[in-house]
């Protein structure tokens, strides 16, 4: 009982850590791409208005 519960808890903890790391990586990647997209859009908009 104790050994099985400890093993299950360790598996759950590892899964939670993995999910947390995955979510953090996805969040940072999403923030990076969103920032790059907004930056590129602002750059093109500035060039468009400057040419106009």
Question: What features would you describe in this structure?
Answer:
With 52 residues, the chain is mostly helical. It has one domain (16-52). 96% of the residues lie in helices and 0% in strands. It has one helix and no strands. It has one helix spanning 2-51. Keywords: Membrane, Transmembrane, Transmembrane helix. The chain crosses the membrane at residues 31-51.
What count of helical segments does DSSP give?
1
Largest sheet: number of strands, sense, barrel closure: none
The N- to C-terminal Cα distance equals 75 Å
What is the mean pLDDT? 88
Number of domains: 1
Low-confidence stretches: none
Classify the beta-strand content into a percent band: under 5%
Write down how many β-strands occur, each being a DSSP E stretch of 2 or more residues.
0
Assembly level: single chain
Label the overall shape.
rod-shaped
Please identify the structural class as seen in this structure.
mainly alpha
Radius of gyration of CA atoms, rounded to a whole number: 22 Å
Helix-strand string:
H
Question: What share of the residues lie within helices?
Answer: over 70%
Transmembrane segments: 31-51
Keywords: Membrane, Transmembrane, Transmembrane helix
